[in-house]
Amino acid sequence: MRAAVVTGPGQMEVRHVPRPEPETGQVRIKLEGCGVCASNLTPWAGPEWMTFPTSPGGLGHEGWGVVDAVGSGVTSVVVGDRVAALSHNSFAEYDVADADAVVPLPPELDGMLFAGEPLGCAMNIFRRSGIEAGQTVAIVGIGFLGAVLTRLATDVGARVIALSRRPYSLEVARRMGAAETLVLDDHYALIAKVSELTDGRFCDVVIEAVGKAWPLDLAAELTRERGRLVIAGYHQDGPRQINMQLWNWRGLDVVNAHERDPAVYAEIVREAVEAVRSGRLDVRDLFTHAYPLEQLDEALNATRDRPDGFLKAVVVMR
Length: 318
Description:
Quinone Oxidoreductase, Chain A, domain 1; globular
């Protein structure tokens, strides 16, 4: 099979390697594609803790495709089932996953790009956020996750204030139902503006979805007394120094919305599949850029640089 291997900071190549074989309780997926995650960017940049080369297909964890082989003991899926997979080497033509870490895709989704893992991630963040009708919710950072969360929050009757540095992302947020959109630029001006929009109360729930220090600081400032600060951004680039005085004084509930239980992750991907199947979520326009496997480097660079019109990249197998 062909598999992408990251050979050094900002460097990759496609190699021909043996197909993986499913072990007991596993399935092999002939991949149709794999989403590119913002969490790929720090390893792509080559921090000190990163080891090169990656395993074949390494960094790819948002794959979907068709089951083409099953290991012994597998009864939950059969060869030919189209599935979203929670696996770890999906920048390749094939990957293996535990049978309980694949989620069947219904016929209504045939032909659709479907990176199930990030959709499940968004569903989990929404679940952990506890958003209810009538609340005011700020979402700091409108990428793929922020856009989906905007739709989920408005769908239950919350008022969403979306913040992003890019005009295109704010346009997407408006399409997904945001009541207010603000350019993510001036720290104190944004605090003043959100205070004005909320009559000085600030927001019931604030979701930080950037993964950088300043947006996290801003998110805390936008959260009302006894409000909920939800950390959805993936913070990989070092320790954080936070304003604990503010967190204490306002009595914030702080939620780290990253899930690590594989069973829960599979459950929330199933929820995402049903949300798309039922029409509750329409994500077709959110996968804005598709690249062949040989151009994984371009997909990663676009995810880093976010050109105009970019929201989410996928690698597709051809």
